[in-house]
Amino acid sequence: MRRLFPVTDQTVPKTSGGRAGGPDDREWSLAELAAAYAYPEPATDGGPVPWLRANMVSTLDGAAQHDGKSQPISNATDMRIFGTLRALADVVVVGAETVRQEGYRPARARAEFAAARKAAGQAPAPAIAVVTASLDLDFSLPLFASPLVPTLVLTGAAAAPERVAAAEKAGARVVIAGAGMGVEPDRAVRALAELGHTRLLTEGGPRLLGQLVAAGVLDELCVTVSPMLTAGDAQRIAGGPSVPVPQRFALVSLLEEEGFLYTRYRRT
Question: What's the predicted TM-score (pTM) here?
Answer without folding.
Answer: 0.91
